[in-house]
User: Fold this.
Amino acid sequence: MIAIPAAVDVAALKDTTLLNMGIFGLFVAVTMVIVFRASRNNKTAADYYAAGRSFTGSQNGTAIAGDYLSAASFLGITGAIAINGYDGFMYSIGFLVAWLVALLLVAELLRNTGKFTMADVLSFRLKQRPVRIAAAISTLAVCFFYLLAQMAGAGSLISLLLGISDWGGQALVIIVVGALMIMYVLIGGMKGTTWVQIIKAMLLIAGAAVMTLWVLAIYGFNLSALLGGAVETANNPAVLNPGLQYGKSDTSKLDFMSLGLALVLGTAALPHVLMRFYTVPTAKEARKSVVWSIWLIGIFYLFTLVLGYGAAALVGADTIKSAPGGVNSAAPLLAFHLGGPLLLGFISAVAFATILAVVAGLTITAAASFAHDIYANVIAKGKADAATEVRVARRTVVVIGILAILGGIFANGQNVAFLVALAFAVAASANLPTIIYSLFWRKFTTQGAVWSMYGGLASAILLIVFSPVVSGLKTSMIPGANFAFFPLSNPGIVSIPLAFFLGWLGTTLDKRREDPAKQAEMEVRSLTGIGAEKAVDH
Amino acid sequence: MGNDAHTPDAAASVDFEQVQSTGQFQELRKRHRSFVFPMAVAFLLWYFAYVLLADYAVGFMSTKVWGNINIGLILGLLQFVSTFAITGWYVHYSNKRLDPIATEIRHEIEGHEFDRNGNRVGGANK
Assistant:
């Protein structure tokens, strides 16, 4: 017999605030010590941006999982499954399958041809200036969307855990999170950031594993019984079937296709994921990183399936939706239901740590791109020394941190998984075609790259602006206005093929030919790893 | 590039067009592409077939197979299985078929067998 779930007393959550903060404080203290120790060896640009290329494949793989399993994965997907059932599960499948693109087509070749940023690879055999600027702009745009998503997640979490529902109080906590993140990245650079991500990934996966086993144990390790429980609580057998969220109309079905395309093609084009491949000494270690992260991420998403249906069965969709934090509160509420204040405190601290670690990774990527691509290679035309460049990167960290705090305060309340899906769409449109073409298409030219990147970036962003996400619906960012002529909330199905087409068209119409010697060099380097920078000894 | 101009690059003086034109390198490229391209097409087709089914064949996906477990859930879990399997397959293939030949070419270049002063083959285009 399955016990009728006791309703979670949301008011009681406030009593656990001190405990939550204590556990989170412990995490911050431990990671700060590690970051300080790691920072002692930060001397060169390779140290600051790429952690001296000294991490092993398994360490980097764990850090990638820590980078990738953001608040969107943990809070967003668990919540989406708890509310929308099967359709939420489909998010996680797209997020996982996408890693095969990174493994087969991108990771090793990229490690062999670049140094610090995505633009290093894209501008390798094309004209430096235009391609680097375009790549840096799209890096900054993708990081910005992703940052917004994470900071919005921080807002939701705070409202749930601290019972702070007023705007000012939430803003204050977002400022604290942002300030901590700035400190990590300023002091620790890539090495510190990586360690924060490794620790966080282990805590997150361990926490999710405990909760998964717990939920399964309640249902006698019978998945069918768990699903039955979810149906019973929701009083709706459709939670087990596809279509609850996206099956409403032809437009919403098409929207789902668009989302699926963006998810599966976006991962291998996320600049903060690509940059992680530079922290290992060889392509073989880059491959190992991806393998390690595919296993960790895949297993984690299997956990979220159980957690999502577990929350649906034990907490109930109505309780989740009415709790402060809404959809994103499914995982913390489930933790409270299972293990009371202590487990809630642990899970919430892990969720905070998740946001902190992901935001740190995004910030260092954006800062590296600005300092290395725009400042050192475009403004200073390659004449800046490494020390100046790192100084510029550190200043950029502060600026981006402040922007993230402001953005987070204003994006507060938006659905996290959804904002992340937009970041994926922008990455898949602006970056992926050029990455694939420059690695595999000999005739690809500068004009093709520039058209594809700007075309993909502009079409993705414009379609979002003119979509129901921004205006026209009650749930839009600007509910009062209506200028939504594009019916889909995810632009991928239009902007991704368009960017591939523009890359082809720009190349075909380009009268200039690229240097065949550079193409030969890139191809030989990418496949053999000749001359790829090895680990820096300390 | 703005950084690490001081970093010694073993490949600085290599004639890459010549390396590219060697049979050995062509073989490496063929082996790499003949694995990753078909595999990428295959897993993308399988993923989109799944998404299309979930989108437009809800009735079929909702068919219960065992208890509350329906075809949709089974196909979803099979996506996980295929992802893990392709990962393992690729690692095995790389270790066996790609790494040895890549290492061989790298050693030859680092041994300066393809120095610019060496025997240069013109017009490396295929």
